[in-house]
Design a protein that fits this description.
The protein is built from eleven helices and 32 strands. With about 550 residues, the protein is of the alpha+beta class. The protein has three domains: about 200 residues, Immunoglobulin-like; about 80 residues, Immunoglobulin-like (Sandwich); about 180 residues, Rossmann fold, CATH 3.40.50.410. Strands 19, 20, 21, 22, 23, 24 and 25 form a seven-stranded mixed sheet that branches. Strands 9, 10, 12, 13 and 16 form a five-stranded antiparallel sheet that branches. The protein has a four-stranded antiparallel sheet with strand order 1-8-3-4. Strand 24, helix 6 and strand 25 form a beta-alpha-beta unit. Helix 2 packs antiparallel against helix 3, helix 4 packs parallel to helix 5 and helix 10 packs antiparallel against helix 11. The longest helix has 20 residues. This is VWFA domain-containing protein. It comes from Octopus bimaculoides (California two-spotted octopus). Pfam families: VIT, VWA. InterPro entries: ITIH, VIT, VWF_A, vWFA_dom_sf.
């Protein structure tokens, strides 16, 4: 049901005649929270304990000092986290590691994606991956692409390409089982195993609602809505740090993007360093002539000068604000930079305040941090405070394709100013985010909350927003869908886990939103209060966030 539980089990043998340190390394998706960890040595189980991060770090360092085992979670690049545990294993003995994590599968380009990173950083003899999917509706698309190296993440792979070693069975229309097993004969692995799928959409506008044990979740992904024409301004960094390869990559990316605009769209391009310069004085309709003209102008850009982020954003908002309320259109700013504010206003707090004050029309500002030197935290705060998201673009992995992919994700708006309301037995104070500035094609809005009646099965809802055809205001009372007993037999989850699955999903969404609030906030007192809320909720439902897993054993 789109809330995935993944369990990594690794049996590692020390076939030496002396003890040695063994490392268990797992790469986790960025959105995943750890929900359990244990290791078994000589038949004795050592469970992990969830602690506040600073406390856990102290325990880990003390364990290392005393020659005991310890573990920690570290942030890595390319949207992942790394879980790592070291343990001393006696001669001719082995250790079994078991890590469990959970995540809400994100829908992109019309497909839910479940990625498992296989990167143990040591030779592997036998590899097996088993995946069981149970959905609330019929699974209409199921794809298992080839098992491939992680550094090919942004390579274009034909949609028809399949994993020849993956066995797929369909016990029912709503379920699927995928098994991958291979003798890899001691090879080092650094690969990804991916599953992509989508479900049949019911014709009613409201989507699917599930309820269980005092919680509910609402999945909203309407079909058959037209794309709202967009007015888009690209703001491109042409400061001296963009010289050479970076500038060439951006120019190639713009060539892809220009051809992905559609009839009815309007656009303009601004470059900036210590000053700003527009391609045209007004938004231009998308056609063959403007494609050629804009690309010729982009190709002529020369990287030079400092980086004045404050001026670029204020000038961009000044340009877009007069047209932002044009009926039936969706204004968007896409901002790309590879550095920090070194010219003009350089104080982060002032830049953030200036942008918020200038953005009275609530135009989404999507930020792209190009390369390792970009101030991603600043860009993330700018985007979170301005109705959008930021993305890190990695130079080593086909950045032009990353830029194009991100652009395609965030520019096809089907609805604007979408608000979900719930009545009756729903505790409105517990709702996760229920207001979405934009709903994009191929994605999904997910809202969860608590019910005042633990056994309630009927949910009354109302959705308002604007589509390409005009305003919508739809509401009704829906009989919530129930998870079947089949999941109890086939999944990793116990009966107790199944009963708490919607509580976990609600907590997951709540924690993610609080973490975004922490990132966006510039007030330390507020950050501390938010952090305490995260820790309290994480400990309650056992989801590692600002927390760490501590697992120690006396050697």
């Amino acid at each position: 049901m789109r809330f995935a539980t993944t369990q990594m089990t690794s049996l590692v043998a020390n076939n030496k005649k002396y003890s040695q340190e063994i490392t268990f390394n797992v790469k986790l998706p960025e959105a995943a929270f750890i929900s359990g960890f244990k290791m078994v040595i000589d038949g004795v189980e050592y469970p992990g304990e969830v602690k506040e991060k600073e406390e856990a770090r102290k325990v880990y360092e003390e364990a290392k000092r005393k020659g005991q085992s310890g573990s920690y979670v570290a942030k890595k690049d390319r949207g992942t986290n790394q879980f790592k545990v070291n343990v001393n294993v006696a001669a001719m003995k082995n250790v079994t590691f078991e890590l469990r994590y959970q995540e809400l599968l994100r829908r992109k380009f019309g497909l839910y994606e479940h990625t498992i990173y296989v990167n143990p950083q040591q030779p592997v003899q036998d590899l097996m991956i088993q995946v069981y999917i149970e959905e609330s509706q019929k699974i209409r698309i199921l794809q298992v692409p080839p098992f491939r190296p992680e550094n090919s993440l942004f390579s274009e792979i034909p949609e028809s390409a399949t994993n020849a070693d993956a066995l797929i069975s369909r016990p029912s229309l709503n379920t699927a089982e995928i098994t991958y097993r291979k003798q890899v004969q001691g090879h080092m692995l650094d690969h990804m195993f991916e599953i992509k799928y989508d479900i049949a959409r019911r014709k009613q506008f409201g989507g699917d609602i599930l309820a269980m044990n005092g919680y509910f979740v609402h999945f909203f992904a309407p079909a058959e809505l037209g794309t709202i024409p967009k007015d888009i301004l690209f703001i491109l960094d042409t400061s001296s740090s963009m010289k050479g390869r970076k500038m060439d990559q951006v120019k190639r990316a713009m060539k892809f993007i220009m051809h992905d605009l559609v009839e009815g769209d309007r656009f303009n391009i601004m470059d900036f360093n210590v000053r700003t310069l527009l391609w045209k004085p007004s938004l231009q309709p998308w056609n063959k002539k403007t494609i050629r003209g804009s690309l010729a102008w982009v190709i002529q850009r020369v990287a030079d000068g400092g980086t004045d982020i404050n001026r670029a954003l204020l000038d961009g908002l000044d340009f877009m604000s007069p047209v932002s309320n044009t009926e039936g259109r969706s204004p968007v700013i896409v901002f790309l930079t590879d550095g920090e504010p070194v010219s003009g206003e350089t104080n982060h707090s002032i830049i953030l305040r200036n942008v918020i004050e200038a953005n009275r029309e609530k135009i989404p500002i999507f930020s792209l941090a190009f390369g390792a030197d970009a101030d991603f935290l600043l860009l993330e705060r700018i985007s979170l405070q301005n109705y959008a998201v930021a993305r890190q673009i990695y130079e080593a992995y086909k950045p032009e394709l990353q830029l194009k992919t991100f652009y395609n994700e965030i520019t096809a708006a089907l609805m604007t100013d979408v608000k979900f309301k719930y009545f009756g037995n729903v505790d409105s104070d517990t709702l996760t985010n229920n207001v979405f500035h934009r709903y994009f094609n191929g994605t999904e809005a997910v809202i969860a909350g608590k019910l005042t009646d633990k056994d309630a099965s009927r949910i009354t809802w109302n959705i308002v927003g604007t589509t390409s055809s005009g305003d919508v205001d739809v509401g009704e009372t829906t009989e919530a869908l129930q998870l079947s007993d089949k999941a109890k037999r086939e999944s990793l989850l116990s009966d107790k886990d199944i009963k708490r699955i919607l509580e976990k999903l609600w907590a997951y969404l709540t924690i993610k939103q609080i973490l975004d609030q922490m990132t966006a906030s510039g007030n330390q007192t507020e950050k501390d209060e938010l952090k305490n809320r995260v820790i309290e909720l994480s400990l309650k439902v056992r989801l590692e966030t600002l927390l760490m897993i501590s697992c120690s054993r006396k050697e």
